[in-house]
Amino acid sequence: MFRKILIANRGEIALRIQRACRELGIPTVAVHSTADAEAMHVRLADESVCIGPPSPRESYLNIPAILSAATITGADAIHPGYGFLSENANFADMVQAHGLTFIGPSAAHIRMMGDKIQAKIAMASLGVPLVPGSAGEVIDLDQAAKVADEIGYPVLIKAAAGGGGRGMKVASSADGLEEAWRLARAEARSAFGNDAVYIEKYLDRPRHIEMQVMADSHGNVVHFGERDCSLQRRHQKLLEEAGSPALTAAERNALGGVVTSGLSKLGYRNAGTLEFLYQDGQFAFIEMNTRLQVEHPVTEMVCGIDLVREQIRIAAGEKLGYAQKDVRFNGHAIECRINAEDPVTFAASPGKVTAFHAPGGLGVRVDSALYAGYTVPPYYDSMIAKLIVHAPTRIEAIARMRRALAEFVVVGVKTSLPLHQRIVEAPEFIAGDYTIHWLENFVGQ
Ligand code: ADP
Question: Taking the domain 5-103, which CATH number applies?
């Protein structure tokens, strides 16, 4: 097992990883920007190192500073969390080159899945069903028009290097193709420095369903079931559930079987999530995330497993120690992502938190690095807390989420709490009857 783990992240996920390390008896090193000197992840770590100024590029994305921090503190492994360097294959390579362990998959698999075109080609060869679309990169507008005619409008132009919902534009007819093509490429170039794009059929009423997988380096692969992440705004998830209200146990097992056999053939290691769109009883792969995800707690609650602990154990070479038949799904879990933002305009709302009270009680979990007196900095993601509830049934989980949201107090910054309160009262949500497009219409009301 590792001597000491450096956590190359901030906020709630840095705390989440610290908690797993502490339970495993492994000391932790926090890294932080000058803006985060007072942050909870720094206060609770065994050691901390300042790695640069507030700008992420100069701190949380500053590879030399992070590797130096690991070296001077004697850490022998790095957990990247999500975001920042978590899907940077060069970082994973450099961590290994420095004689440290990257807690995650191999750099080769990160690289493969980071290019969404390569990811789709790889998944197709493993027998995983795809969203209909171009066979690979689409290089010019003529080819785009040909592909769109073949698969039929509406189509979606997507960036090969895409992430965070950026570099994605819909063309509803041939008339809109040129503009969507131009906008998608421009956005991809400015966001990712790579304007390679591909085309998919734009599905009009899918759900976003993803499978959580864990694989060790001894050839064992298991899945922990699905999450339904259809409640999105601008392709960003706001509320997630495990399991999906739309799937039967048979569908879950069938998809789980396809996914685990595919990743086993690939020789994949550590945590991963395969994302699918689900419509008319069909699953279609869209991308794979080679890291821990924001919404992992809903899976932990229903499976009763600590996914970060598993990531660490696997990275240290240990075996999973259980088979698929040992993974049980108990009850239902829901997560609300609480952001520091205006609940109506969605404008970010950084600033000083003057009062903070987190809900509690049976089946309630709050993953947050917030405290009264903390100033939410303007430089990073606006998510300030994840509120997760678990109950024997979905309807009880919704009731629990309602009462937990009502207990949650954050004063000083605006938050998305009022929006979540509206969502959990909406008849479509209660009925489990929603697609990826539902929330956009709902917030517009
Ligand atoms: P990113 O990596 O930017 O998150 P994804 O490929 O995971 O991009 O897609 C993000 C979201 O965009 C999906 O969850 C879904 O809501 C929407 N989306 C992606 N592809 C399609 C498609 N072909 N049709 C309809 N919606 C899509």
Answer: 3.40.50.20
